Recover the amino acids of this structure.
């Protein structure tokens, strides 16, 4: 096999230090180890790389799950904020001061 790889430009033999996304390429079998820190790219590496990347991105279930989780967190945040605003209003009413004064006192930004 090594003798077949003597044509470095044809087989894209490169040193590990020059390989971007080394772990990804190795994990997905897009580069093969030759000797020491030298590797060669499998034929048609560019197309295979983009195919794998696109498959990992184009998962609509993951996107829908992420959007639902985000909306749930946003709803929780809004409920907590409303509760906090209500408490600040009650404190201001009990102290007989403006809401702005209470917000400044407890360091709540506008």
């Amino acid at each position: 096999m090594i003798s077949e790889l003597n044509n470095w430009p044809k087989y894209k033999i490169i040193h590990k230090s020059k390989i971007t996304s080394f772990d990804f390429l190795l994990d997905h079998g897009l580069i093969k180890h030759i000797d020491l820190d030298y590797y060669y790219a499998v034929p048609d590496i560019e197309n295979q790389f983009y195919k794998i990347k696109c498959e990992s991105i184009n998962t609509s279930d993951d996107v829908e799950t992420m959007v639902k989780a985000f909306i749930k967190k946003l709803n929780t945040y809004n409920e907590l904020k409303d509760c906090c605003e209500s408490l600040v209003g009650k404190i201001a009413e009990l102290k007989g001061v403006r809401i702005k004064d209470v917000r400044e006192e407890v360091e709540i930004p506008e």
In short: Residues 60-106 form one domain. The helical segments are 8-11, 22-27, 45-57, 60-95, 99-105. DSSP finds five helices and three strands in the chain.
